[in-house]
Specification:
Elements (H helix, E strand, L loop, with lengths): L4 H26 L3 H9 L12 E6 L10 H10 L3 E4 L11 H15 L10 E6 L1 H15 L4 E7 L8 H14 L4 H9 L5 H4 L6 H12 L4 E7 L9 H9 L10 H4 L9 E7 L18 H15 L4 H5 L1
Helix pairs in contact: 1-6, 4-5, 6-7
């Protein structure tokens, strides 16, 4: 049976619409807000002067983000642990540089910011958001190998099993070529989120992730993985299902599937997992109160974990 021309045109329009919608979602996942970039350029290294280093918290921001994302968390952590030195390294090339390269920069920055006053017995807590969680854990491994005391690692929305959206980006580029869309559009798609080893390290089953999974089997660094579930935030019919295809699974936090955030299916040691409902990565159109890095429940989980690993009661709890 020969399809009518109107039906063929309808099918093509439908496919093109899906491609455009997918492109918009991809742009949202990787988008660097202009205001963030401007603020990041103004941020200078925050050097803690005249502070006796006893306990250290290192905050590692996500792909294409900046240290300012941690403002709410930093305020709460400094309130709970006033004696701690909070450090927020700024990595400007999270897509281009490999996580191995980013790790080296953090270790150097850590020594520099503490004026080499850090002692190997001083307990270090590393906290990472999204890609920053992989960077934090990889840094913890090196610090431990060098003899430093790593009390633990907290990851928030981190793609332990990889970010499938990177594969989706490749699929969209292929579809755009199949539709014979303008080369400039295809080139623009390729530039979304940047290009480089930092992205490739997060691709599911990448050599880096395979190596990291081997480390998780053997290493005894205490880890708490916090996963966000944005399912209840969706009010658009079919949106959850579509985003599930785009992101690589449901539930998710609008960027990474929950099973990846929690490292489910990966053999681990000293690994805690917690799910925080109704939270998303950092999308401006959605409720700011639901952003992972500003969610009260997520922050409380972090403070509790740090207090347990440091063997101290947070200041607020003491006063309360």
């Amino acid at each position: 049976m020969i399809s009518s021309k109107p039906e063929m045109n309808k099918t093509l329009v439908s496919k093109f619409f899906i491609l455009c919608l997918s492109t918009l979602c991809l742009f949202s996942c990787f988008n660097k807000r202009e205001e963030d970039i401007v603020k990041a350029q103004k941020l200078q290294a925050i050097i803690e002067k005249d502070i006796k280093v006893e306990r250290i918290i290192v905050l590692c921001h996500g792909l294409g983000r900046n240290p300012e994302d941690f403002e709410a968390i930093q305020a709460k952590l400094q309130e709970a642990f006033p004696e701690a030195c909070v450090i927020k390294p700024h990595e400007k090339e999270t897509a281009k540089k490999s996580i191995e390269e980013q790790k080296k920069a953090i270790v150097e920055d850590l020594i520099k910011r503490t004026h080499k006053d850090i002692e190997k017995k001083d307990p270090i807590m590393l906290i990472g958001h999204s890609q920053g969680g992989l960077r934090a854990y990889w840094t913890a491994l090196q610090l431990t190998a060098k003899g430093y005391t790593v009390a633990g690692v907290i990851t928030i929305g981190t793609p332990w099993k990889g970010a499938s959206v990177i594969n989706t980006k490749s699929t969209l580029i292929k579809k755009a070529k199949d539709f014979k869309l303008p080369k400039r559009f295809v080139s623009w798609l390729g530039r979304i989120g940047g290009q480089g080893q930092g992205l490739e390290d997060m691709r599911p089953e990448s050599p880096f992730l395979n190596q990291l999974h081997q480390k998780l089997k053997k290493n005894k660094i205490a880890v708490m993985a916090l996963g966000g579930n944005a399912r209840s935030l969706s009010r658009i019919p079919g949106a959850t299902k579509f985003l599930g295809w785009f992101i690589g699974g449901t539930p998710h936090d609008l960027a990474v599937p929950l099973n990846s955030q929690l490292a489910q299916g990966i053999e681990t040691k000293c690994f805690e997992r917690h799910v925080i409902e109704a939270t998303h990565k950092h999308y401006a159109p959605l409720s700011k109160k639901k952003i992972q890095l500003e969610h009260p429940e997520m922050i409380n989980e972090m403070i509790g974990f740090i207090g347990r690993k440091w063997g101290i009661i947070p200041a607020k709890a003491q006063n309360g």
